Amino acid sequence: MKIKKILVSQPQPESEKSPYYELAEKNNVKIDFRPFSHVEGISCKEFRKQRIDILAHTAIVFSSKTAIDHFFRICGEMRITVPDTMKYFCTSESVAFYLQKYIIYRKRKIFYGNGTVNDLMESILKHADEKFLLPLSDQQNEELTLQLDKHNIKYSKAILYQNVSLDLSDLSILNYDLLVFFSPSSFKSLLKNFPGFQQNDIRIGSFGSSTAKAILDAGLRLDLQAPRPEAPSMIAALDQYIKEQNKNCKK
Q: For 54, what's the count of Cα atoms within 13 Å in the CB-facing half-sphere?
């Protein structure tokens, strides 16, 4: 089946120069955007129940910009001043640079990987004596915690936000040839909104290993996965996949 219509489980880009619009025009496909879930921060009262002393830690691991936002939100609401000596470990350069929103970047000890857990662990292992704090959502990054446990790294998990499914009852999911997910929570929202969902000819794409795992664990077929060496972004992966699928298709 030719790919004509794609649903991306994210908000519509605000900029008219979004690469998604260029992708759609170049490949003659229609791309719709619809968030399947949204993030809600937990309250200070809920955080206190976890009995975590932020200042007892010497390093923080950030896997996303959302984690950064909610960490500094909680610190602000609880009037906690993060010391200048705190070390920051980020999964990617873009996540690391986002710290500039809250700290003076050049005066801090900041380390980052290339987007993979294994690469991030290389930096963490060089500072294995630190006491790490992991700001997370209620749907935790098991890949990272498994690696930390494997290497006996001292760390605490701080649940700072949760992913909540949105109502998709008005959405005609069967009208799409390809569904694209960026988080386990957005995929789980699909199953919650459409119980008994049958994939059939609908293609499914994912970004990130945890999203891919959620799809496969549900017994569905994963047709497109990013990032990978030849397609480091979802845009690149989609471009390659659409061309490949539509090349010899007459429908």
A: 23
Question: In the listed set 163, 182, 215, which residue is the last one of a domain according to the structure?
Answer: 163
**Domain that includes residue 131, residue range:** 40-163
In this structure, what CATH number is given to the domain that contains residue 65? 3.40.50.10090
Whether the predicted pLDDT of 141 surpasses 70: no
Domain boundary among 102, 131, 163: 163
Q: Which residues of 49-64 are buried (b: 16+ CB within 10 A; e: fewer)?
A: eeebebeebbbbbbbb
CA distance 54 to 44: 13
Q: Give the pLDDT mean for 233-242.
A: 94
Q: Give the model confidence (pLDDT) of 6-65 as tens digits.
A: 999 999 998 888 999 999 999 999 999 999 999 999 999 999 999 999 999 999 999 889
- Residue 83 covered by a domain: yes
Let me know whether 92 and 63 are in one domain: yes
- Is 0.70 topped by the overall pTM? yes
Check if the beta carbon of residue 144 is closer than 8 Å to that of residue 166. Answer: no
Rounded-to-integer distance, Cα 202 and Cα 7, Å: 11
Residues across the chain:
251
Question: Would residue 251 count as lying in a domain?
Answer: no
CB distance 111 to 123 below 8 Å: yes
Per the CB < 8 A criterion, the answer to whether 37 and 165 are in contact is yes
Q: Note whether 150 and 188 are same-domain residues.
A: no
In b/e form, how buried is each residue of 172-209, taking b as 16+ CB within 10 angstroms? Answer: eeeebbbbbbbbbbbbbbbeebeeebeeeebbbbbbbe
Element (H, E) at 23: helix 19-27
